Amino acid sequence: MVPRTSPHAPGRLAQLLIRSSLIALFLLLSPDSTGGTGFAQPPASPGARGSAESLTQDFVALNAQYQLARSAKRSELLGSLLTLATTRQAHLSALIENDPGVVLRVALPAGVRASLPAEVRDAVEEEVVVEGELEILHEDRTDGSRYLHFLYAYGARFSLHFAADSPMHLQTGDRVRVWGVRVDQALALQSGSTSVQALAAALPNTFGAQKTLVILVNFQDKQIQPYTVASAQGVLTMASDFDLETSYGQTWLTGVVDLTQAADVRGWYTIALSSTVCDYNALASQAKSAASAAGVNLSTYTRYVYAFPSNACTWWGLGTVGGNPSQAWINGSFQLKVLGHEMGHGFGLYHSRALDCGTTTLGTSCTTIEYGNPLDIMGNPSSGHFNAFQKERLGWLNYGASPPITTVQADGTYWLDPYESLGSNPKALKILKSTDPSTAKKTWYYVEYRRALGFDSFLSSNSNVLNGMVIHTGSESSGNSSNLLDMTPETSSWSDPALLVGDNFYDPDAGVTIAPLWADSTKAGVTVTFAGQACVPANPTAALSPSQSKGVQAGTTVTYTVSVTNNDNAGCAASSFNLKATAPTGWTAIFATPAATIQPGTSASTTLQVSSSASATDGFYNFGVTATNGANTTYTGSTSATYVIVSSLNVTVSTNKSSYTRIQTVSITANASANGSPVANASVTFTITKQGGAKVTGTATTGTSGSAVFKYRLKRSDPKGVYQVRADANLNNAMAGSAGTSFTVQ
Q: If one looks up domain 650-745 in CATH, what number appears?
């Protein structure tokens, strides 16, 4: 029995409550704390931080009063606590877009949130781990631009806001797991590297015919048509020709209805949206609805473009970074410059920038110019081939049957074909610049020989570019790392970035010299020399595949592939790497080969068999693998993967309506999940038992959302009455689940 406490002399329970609240408040607001989220936060603006902290202090103090109050007083305090929680939530919601670091700093720890009354808890932010599909959008403006990040999960769309660097190695459609603080439909996250884990990459779509639909729309208050359908078709033809040329004949735009056209153009449609509003989601939804109502089958396209008269949006173009289908919005003038740029984003590209180091080509005080590359349409020309780093990312260079890039690893003179021309000769050189010792990600020099051909014909009067080599850098760590280098830093212009024939560029850190020897209309020669390189060791890279197993029963042996890459530079000898696995207690993890000798810059693989304990419960279990350099044990690389145990599937089934008339179509959706996450590739058998006992069956397979759909069109002869529906799901013949529902035929 708990002893009664005096209002003037708190008893042991009251003291503990006060003490725990004060400790939580101290941890929450201490300048050196992590805010209860495990994130070290950058300093916030004094005004925003002061207001957020003040509201949080008041809220935690009021909660402490509520916890200590007797039942009669609690009722009065509950209303005040809920009002303050709502006010604080509105403040954090307004703050999260521009200053997510403050939101992370003042976020209530999970333990404090759990102590709140249930009526208040929903109005308080929450530490969450969420899995879903990523969407990345980019707004292109004349003055400034920005990336927007969203996560589709659990049937909702969450906006993502990063306190530090956003993830530049991912694309729209990637499946990810994120850690952060949820405020309404927004998540505050620390950084792309620490708060986002890639689970599965979206399938690439950068080759062949790109089935494209362009929907022209205008607004209720602005029913103008600033250009004709024929004019838009002409720009699309140029965009298709651009992609065909820059991909060396491997990629182009096409329609579905008319295969001779570069895209299917539909409209103009007037939609129920005002030009004074900038709501690109509503615009896309209404544009698609209008096209669908006009008989367009939207599902046959892999790329959508929405074009409209100038409205309240301050950007010229908006596009998804990747995506299948990808989407692009063109605001106002419909030109190749913006269409080709946004379609480049749709292929998965970030910007082609320039690196400004003042009076030197490289230095310690450099800035990036976002649209600084004047030779590449992902920079700021009206046209211009994607640079070699960008084309390599698309697979248009150095992949399969694509023209090659020569990776230079030894002294010599190397030949290049004109960058724009067809053929199987090398189109660029790739030279190692540096290796990050922590991540082992490499940064490369890319050397190109540009000519005034095709969409690069604007270079016809540029004697610098035509008589030299254009050099960029790009890093494996980020798609947003394409930087043009200024090889004539003594001038203030960026129209003369090339390294001229007869000159040379020396990087003392990489120990490499690049010297163009000659350049004519058909070929160019470049000499590359390396100084005697000292051995520079680096952490190896370890990787596990798959990153997450399919759901299996406890005790099952799952085989993973372990790969190790030796990231030491070329001055080092081969090294032996020892492998070690860390699995939960009672599990076994056995390598086929626990050690491997690997040359610098190369990789080796082996298998790892992981068996769970037969008594392990359903859930997601992480295990790790570490690769250690046997000659220098300070250099290690680690990775992890997930082993999923599922004993049964959770299944729900529903119909799109509760009652139907004959001839109507019944749409039945089954959802399969395990451990709270959707289950893909489960086979589902649907059984409809009609009034009277006759049965109809159908099968489907769940997609990445865990859903499978079966449709049945009722016949005129079907009896009236209640129909029973059963969905039986099965995954790998190892686990199953079922659910039922019913509907009425009137």
A: 2.60.40.1930
